[in-house]
Specification:
Layout: H1 2-21, H2 23-40, H3 42-118, E1 127-136, E2 144-147, E3 160-162, E4 167-174, E5 179-183, E6 190-195, E7 200-205, E8 213-215, E9 228-231, E10 243-251, E11 254-259, E12 268-273, H4 276-287
Antiparallel strand pairs: 1-2, 1-12, 2-5, 3-4, 3-12, 4-5, 6-7, 6-9, 7-8, 8-11, 9-10, 10-11
Helix pairs in contact: 2-3
């Protein structure tokens, strides 16, 4: 028995050495043979490939299950961390909104008391129309847009054009079906505004850049970056208090305002009639002596 085993070992040793020496050539020959077989009979190759895939599928599925489980676990951990961050942000936002609500209720009560004390005339109700922006006439010299609304829809020249964030411009030209809105960044735009807690008066002038400038500020005004800019109501074009933007630059060259309106996503505008000029004309007409 030992002699037979030794004989087999002596015969296998040269064969093993020969195989190791010519393994690379054998692999090339096998690959070449498989290529010839695939060209000669593709049906056999396809069947063999499918059978091999079917045979290996359970092993591949079993091998991929731990990886899939790990990926799902990591994804759930990330989602939980993200949800925790979102939850914290929502809690903080809720606290801010509650604080604003408390302040708004206090200011509303104070405002109602002051109105009752001063016997202030009630504000006139205003009408509005939502119009879609259908054309952008913006260029190096003009900052205006066309909206889908004209005389047939009740659009009038001088109406304020508002977005959900603040003042965007005013109606400059009215057609039968469309109107042109002059934006507050246009070089022809001049809007009386008030700035900051001190309510310093100024004129916001457009210069075709994204950030208009403030003109005619009184000497000694203390304007800082971040001060809120709203309409002052002077001139009768816009009512007081319409949000315009924030001060973003205070230098010797001037003061710059960044409007609240997002010019890159200007899809709809609310055209509002405040009828402030009508108040003045009606007052003058009533005070005029009868003929």
């Amino acid at each position: 028995m030992n002699k037979r085993t030794g004989k087999v070992a002596r015969l296998a040793t040269p064969l093993k050495a020969w195989t190791q020496r010519f393994a690379f050539l054998l692999l090339i020959a096998a690959a070449f043979g498989l290529m010839l077989l695939g060209k000669a009979d593709t049906l056999i190759v396809e069947r063999a490939r499918i059978q091999l895939a079917d045979t290996m599928a359970p092993f591949l599925e079993a091998a991929s299950e731990p990886v899939t489980t790990v990926n799902e676990t990591v994804g759930k951990i990330r989602d939980m961390a993200r949800l925790r961050e979102v939850n914290a942000m929502l809690r903080a936002e809720n606290e801010r909104l509650l604080e604003w609500r408390r302040q708004a209720m206090a200011l509303e009560a104070q405002n109602a008391g002051l109105r009752d004390l001063l016997r202030l005339a009630p504000e006139i109700e205003h009408q509005y129309l939502s119009a879609r922006v259908v054309g952008d006439q913006g260029s190096a010299f003009v900052r205006s847009v066309l909206v889908s609304g004209g005389q047939s829809e009740g659009v009038r020249k001088g109406q304020a054009a508002l977005t959900g964030s603040g003042l965007a411009g005013r109606v400059a030209e009215v057609g039968e079906r469309v109107s042109r809105v002059l934006l507050i960044t246009d070089i022809n735009s001049r809007i009386p505004v008030q700035v900051g807690p001190a309510q310093d008066k100024a004129i916001m002038a457009g210069d075709n850049s994204p950030e208009p400038s403030l003109l005619y500020l009184l000497p000694g005004t203390s304007i800082e970056v971040g001060d809120r800019v709203v309409t002052s109501g002077h001139g009768g074009l816009f009512p007081p208090g319409l949000p315009v933007g924030d001060v973003v630059e205070v230098t010797e060259a001037g003061v710059r305002v960044r409007p609240y309106t997002d010019w890159n996503h200007l899809d709809y505008l609310r055209l509002v009639s405040y009828d402030l000029p009508g108040l003045i004309e009606d007052f003058i007409a009533r005070r005029a002596p009868p003929r």
